[in-house]
């Protein structure tokens, strides 16, 4: 499932390429035909990302809510202006590790940070013709067909004169009023990139410390904290050396606050690089390897049966609330 960093990157892409522009909207798949007709010909006036949800505002104070869920993704094509404050799709805009050292530019082989398809990792399905403001990608072709042909099941296509965005496989794609958007956001836990960080820490700490629910479930509860998914959950718990089955109310306050602060840091790194980098203090060579391959990027996630990178104990995986939970039974007692 795309986690919070991906949704914030998508929102920034829309801010640079769609906000302030009139769009043509269609539903090639047909499942959002009525909604597409309502926003067709309107300008996008704002975009918001909160946790795993994105909200696009159209003229007339009409909002589109998109939740990518397990399999959703946005595919971008055409002239794409890359945000210079974050790493580009192929990692060429420079990346910084947690120590602040400038590190080699790396292309992720898995596509997690792909600009052309942000969301559920996949190979890009559409051609990208980059504008001169961006870093070019392999395969540029000024004579490519425009607009690009529809490939596969596209729930919604948003099209300006020069840029296309195709939405595939979302869990939610619906139109809301401004009041409905406010009500939806009010149900969500704090997001470090949206809410005041200090206030967010207090909200998060207060809620966790009064719950008997295991901390491993609380971190995935979007009403407790926004944006954390399976990968960040496993990594945050390991970095805190915290047993995922510990009831929230039994987790020491300083540890709960540490979880929030670590999430603030990891989310910023994820938005900057486009990848869920959770390992610290890597050498340039190790960093290059980690940025290029997810197998070298995490402490425990997706490492069931492999030795813990710290103590050598076999990493275990459990099924918890239909999701896989990875942890080290020795480091996280």
Give a verbal description of the structure:
26% of the residues lie in helices and 18% in strands. The chain is an alpha+beta fold. The chain folds into two domains: 146 residues, Alpha-Beta Barrel (N-terminal domain of MutM-like DNA repair proteins), CATH 3.20.190; 138 residues, Orthogonal Bundle (Helicase, Ruva Protein, domain 3). A five-stranded antiparallel beta sheet has the order 1-9-10-5-8. It is globular and about 55 Å long. The protein starts with a helix and ends in a 6-residue tail after the last strand.
List the helices and strands and how they pair.
Elements: H1 4-17, E1 24-26, H2 33-39, E2 44-50, E3 53-58, E4 62-67, E5 73-78, E6 95-96, E7 102-103, E8 117-119, E9 156-159, E10 163-168, E11 172-177, H3 178-186, H4 197-209, H5 215-218, H6 230-239, H7 253-273, H8 284-292, E12 316-320, E13 323-327
Antiparallel strand pairs: 1-9, 2-3, 3-4, 4-11, 5-8, 5-10, 6-7, 9-10, 12-13
**CATH topology group of the largest domain:** N-terminal domain of MutM-like DNA repair proteins
N- to C-terminal distance: 27 Å
Order of helices and strands: HEHEEEEEEEEEEHHHHHHEE
Low-confidence stretches: 87-107, 120-140
Overall residue-averaged pLDDT value: 85
């Amino acid at each position: 499932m795309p986690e919070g960093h991906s949704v914030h990157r998508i929102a920034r892409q829309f801010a640079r390429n769609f906000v302030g522009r009139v769009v043509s909207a269609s539903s090639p798949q047909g499942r959002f035909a009525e909604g597409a007709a309502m926003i067709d010909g309107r300008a996008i006036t704002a975009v918001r990302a909160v946790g795993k949800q994105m909200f696009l505002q159209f003229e007339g104070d009409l909002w589109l809510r998109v939740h990518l869920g397990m399999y959703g993704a946005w595919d971008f094509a055409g002239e794409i202006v890359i945000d210079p404050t974050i790493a580009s799709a192929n990692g060429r805009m420079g990346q910084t590790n947690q120590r602040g050292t400038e590190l080699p530019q790396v292309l992720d082989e898995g596509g997690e940070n792909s600009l052309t398809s942000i969301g559920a990792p996949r190979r890009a399905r559409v051609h990208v013709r980059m504008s001169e403001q961006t870093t070019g990608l392999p395969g540029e072709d000024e004579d490519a067909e425009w607009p690009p042909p529809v490939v596969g099941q596209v729930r919604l296509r948003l099209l300006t004169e020069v840029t296309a965005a195709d939405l595939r496989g979302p869990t939610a794609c619906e139109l809301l009023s401004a009041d409905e958007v406010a009500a939806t956001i009010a149900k969500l836990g704090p997001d470090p990139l949206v809410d005041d960080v200090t206030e967010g820490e207090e909200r998060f700490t207060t809620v966790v410390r009064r719950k008997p629910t295991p901390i491993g479930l609380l971190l995935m509860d979007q009403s407790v904290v926004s944006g954390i998914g399976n990968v960040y959950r496993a990594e945050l718990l390991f970095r805190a050396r915290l047993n995922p089955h510990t009831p929230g109310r039994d987790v020491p306050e300083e540890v709960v606050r540490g979880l929030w602060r670590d999430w603030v840091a990891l989310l910023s790194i994820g938005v900057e690089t486009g990848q869920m980098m959770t390992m610290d203090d890597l050498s340039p060579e190790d960093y290059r390897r980690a940025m290029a391959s997810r197998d070298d990027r995490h402490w425990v996630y997706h490492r069931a049966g492999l030795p813990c990178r710290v103590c050598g104990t076999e990493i275990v995986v459990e099924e918890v609330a239909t999701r896989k939970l990875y942890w080290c039974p020795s480091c996280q007692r």
